[in-house]
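Workshop exercise sheet. Pairs work together: one partner reads the sequence aloud, the other fills in the structure field after running the prediction. Swap roles for the next sheet.
Pair: D.N. / O.F.
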Amino acid sequence: MKRIWLKIFATVVSVAALLSLGTPTALAQPANDDFANATVITVLPFSDVLDNTQATLEPDEPFVCGPTAQTVWYSITPSTTQVLRADTLGTNFFPNDLAVYRARGPGFGGLDFVGCAFSGDPIRWAADAGATYYMQAGSFHLGGGTLQVNVEVVPPPPNDNFADATSFSAVPFSDDLDLSGATVELGEPSPSCSGFPPQGTAWYAFTPLASGTYTGGLSAPGGFGFIPEFGIFAGTALSDLTEVACFHSDPVALSADAGTTYFIQVGNATGAAHPAVFSWDLAPPPTAAFGFFPSDPSSFDTIQFFDSSVDPVRVGIESQSWDFGDGSTATGCCPTHRYTLDGDYEAGLTVTTFDGRTASTSQAVQVRTHDVAITRLLVPEAASAGQTRSILVGVNNRRYMETVQVELFKGVPGGFLSLGVLTQSVPVRVGNRTTSFGFSYTFTSDDASVGQVTFKAVANIWGARDALSANNEAIASPTKVSG
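Structure field:
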């Protein structure tokens, strides 16, 4: 629908222009309007400016890049294999596009589509020596106007070939790199882990001054569709390279020996043209981290520890060594440990990667055994309907000052019904001494019809987990109720 309105608008604009100018001057049909009359490009860089207002579409002319209209044609047959870049610039109201094809036979039926570019965006492709390529330029909608077509050779990076690999030994090392014109040499290896072989590569030769693990990457800020690939090889010539490592995307990690030269092949799996930065440095240590459960342990808990360390270069964690801060140690990813006494302990973890890099971390483990118990539940042995009687709940606490909530229930058919809640501080008391929570209850005729009431009390510590919650509940013997 949007395109229809654009076409209607273009028609209105064209009619208005004709009316304002009077009798228009006739524009000539471009000489390269037809495929058979394509302008042959022999010298690069090339630029052509023309008016495609009177250009036409031939029967069966392809338009794989969209509803192309008013097209003109160009062709080029490079004498050497090279990377070409083409784009279009138009002054017409509507956007323009450019399609590139490779000829494998005569006519439209012999064209193989290479790619598209729109409204000034460039298209880049690796052109083979002796192959003929056709470029179809036109308006994306009806309209036409001044159209400029540009074609140029994209120079390869200076380290495009293996023999021209950029050498370095000192780290950190970084290099600005543009793979836009990069090529792949005859006989050049493709990284074994590559899902899509790089369409253009560059080479680096790294001879470390010291043995160790090194890491690097190829970053292209803002480079949508940039998927770096790396092959690392040992050898002396392109014909005798042996793959040492392969990486599909960052980061790269290499365990390297001092004095040995490693050849690093970098490329972009998508072939997208973006400026990039190659960087190389010693691998950083892993990031040690761990957790434990429960996070609020008591002296009754067996704590589960678990390693959550990360190796930023993905060599991997080989071993873990634990120190629980109470004289006990362990190894492995996920040990368990129980602290027999309350206190503050500094638990530590040291991790080692498969290539020997280490890191350590520690954190405090606070062991607090919170525990209260209902040791008394005093209820009347008998009562009458309408009579109000006292009910007393005694809470014992031998460890820490606690804020305790006690809820009183009475038994009803199918379960228990809450009668009320009391909250208060419960100090530490030695022996069997308790802190009292006093409730009152008025017995009902329904209680009398049943003939008895069973009371239950439940205690909960506020802000802490009760280590032994089994003694936080008490049920009294039934109270007989008469009418």
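Discussion prompt: Helices lie at 2-21, 445-450. What would you look at next?
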